[in-house]
Amino acid sequence: MFAKQLTVFIENRLGRLSEVLNVLKENNVNILSLSLADTTEFGLLRLIVDDAQKGKEKLTENGFSSLLSDVTVIKIPHKVGSLQELLKAVDESGVNVEYMYGLSIEAEEAYVVLKASDGAKLDAILVKYGIQTVTSEDLKSL
Asked: What's the pLDDT tens digit per position in 33-70?
């Protein structure tokens, strides 16, 4: 089960991040989580939003380069070691986690967004270990 992630490529210059976020705000697209990685020339902004398709369309209309990709959002107990235990099982199955970042919606649970080299294999591992995944539709109701 996958959720849609919106990735925006932005120049690493003053005010550009604010411009992206303003487009989303002006079009009533709510940000649930984000991650920003930078280099000297550009930034890679990854977002989980309540309407990824609308966000992409509005950003494109405003001159931003973006793409949608499938990611896995998991729900795990918010306790010491729970993420490491899951990642150990993923590693042992030969699936590489390409990146991940946190998504906090509830106080009792932790949500983590991750992108893996083999999404279908990761999904099978998560089912095996009883790990709940969250779709884009699920996120809209949180």
From this structure: 999 988 888 899 999 999 999 999 999 999 999 999 99
d(CA 95, CA 108): 28
Residue 78's nearest CA partner among 105, 41, 115, 116 is 105
Decide if 21 contacts 138 (C-beta within 8 A): no
Q: Which residues of 90-109 are buried (b: 16+ CB within 10 A; e: fewer)?
A: beeeebebeebbebeeeeee
Q: Per the confidence metrics, is the pTM higher than 0.70?
A: yes
Other C-beta atoms closer than 10 Å to the C-beta of 129 total: 13
Closest CA to 40 of 7, 11, 9, 14: 11
pLDDT of residue 110: 64
